Structures are given as structure tokens and as C-alpha cells.
Amino acid sequence: MGTLYLVRHGQASFGADDYDRLSELGHKQSVRLGEYFRLKGIEFNAVLTGTLRRHQETLAGMAKGLDWQAQPLLWPGLNEYDSEAVIQAIHPMPLAKPDTPELYRHHFRLLRDGLTQWMAGVVSPRGMPSYNDFVHGVSSALEHVRQNFDGNVLLVSSGGPISTAVGHILGTSPEATIELNLRIRNSSVSEFHFTPKRHSLVTYNTLPHLDAPEYADWITHA
């Protein structure tokens, strides 16, 4: 029995040529989260992460704040879907960089539509697994936690896998899972209670480490 803490990576570089790296603020969010866990006396018996750079940088920042040497188990099934491939599956023409509010909203309207069609098996984005295989990559990580660990376990991933994990244990519809995905905040914490048989949702998308006025402008989504 234990608690699984699912952490979304810190703010990445949305709109840049290389999204898969943390912004300066993303690094600060990650260190701050580690400091929060240290001040609360929360220690981790195991760590799982995806293999993406933003996952590793987030864990490194948390480890710095925790004053802790992390030894993660890398789990490729916790990697994010390819949002560009999802959009290109339904909109093959090039898009302008989302550097205005309207282009930003347009990007996420297309992403929502593409995710809906991918989940329904209507489109197969280039280089991506089927949605069923994506879910299996996430659920297999949850099963591994249940069967191999107890106490506090840390999982660092992205919005897609974390919302999929929540949807999996709650049995939500694909549409609800998409809404969970598009609302999740950078460096947010979700908690599952787990036993060898099941996971149960305790909290979703919380920011306890940023719950002070001086961190109000540290809250980001992309």
C-alpha cells in the first residue's frame, strides 16, 4: 500500500523549435516542488519517469530541491503523445507558430479534434502508437507500481499520460480524458492511493508548492 505522486513536468518551451526542454520558469517550478516535498518530510521509495528531456529535467530540479539523489526507472510508456503528429493527421497544411492568443486557441482546437479522432481510431498519427497501445503503456506503469512498491512513489510524466492514468482508473469517456489533459498545469501533483489490487484517485492537478501570492505568476499550462 502507498501513495503514488504523479507530477507533470515543469513549463516546457511551447512555440519554440525544441519544445522538449524546460523554460527558465519550468526549472524554477521543479526546484520549488522538490523544496515543498522536503519541507513536508515526504520521501520517495521509488521513481518512474518517461524518457523525454523535460521529464528528466523536472526530476533533476525536484531532486535539487529535495537534496536527494534520484535513481529513476525509465518507462517509455510514460512519454507524451506527439501533439504535432496528432494535429497533422487532421490538418496536413503547415501552421504558423502559436505566438498570438488566437493562434494559440486555434492550435488547441485542432489538438482537441485530433485527439478525439485518434482515440476513436479514425486517424493514425505518423510515428505514434494506437490509442489502445498508448493506454497500455500508462496502465502497465501503474500495474508495476502496485505489484512492486509500497510507501511513497514518484512518477514524472506529461499531461497526456497523467490524464490517461486518471481516466483509466475512473473509467471516464475519451472526451472527459481530453478535458482533463487540456486543463492540467505545469509541475502539478496528482495523488493515487494504491494497494496490490487497485489505484484510487485522491487529488488531481494540484499546486500546493505554488499556493502563495509570490508564486501567482508561476502557474502555467503549456
TrEMBL record:
CDD domains attached to this UniProt entry: HP_PGM_like
Gene3D superfamilies given in the database record: Phosphoglycerate mutase-like
Entries under SMART domains matching the protein: PGAM
Pfam families: His_Phos_1 (PF00300)
Highest taxon, organism lineage: Bacteria
PANTHER family reported for this sequence: BROAD-SPECIFICITY PHOSPHATASE YOR283W-RELATED (PTHR48100), HISTIDINE PHOSPHATASE FAMILY PROTEIN-RELATED (PTHR48100:SF1)
Name the UniProt record assigns to this protein: Histidine phosphatase family protein
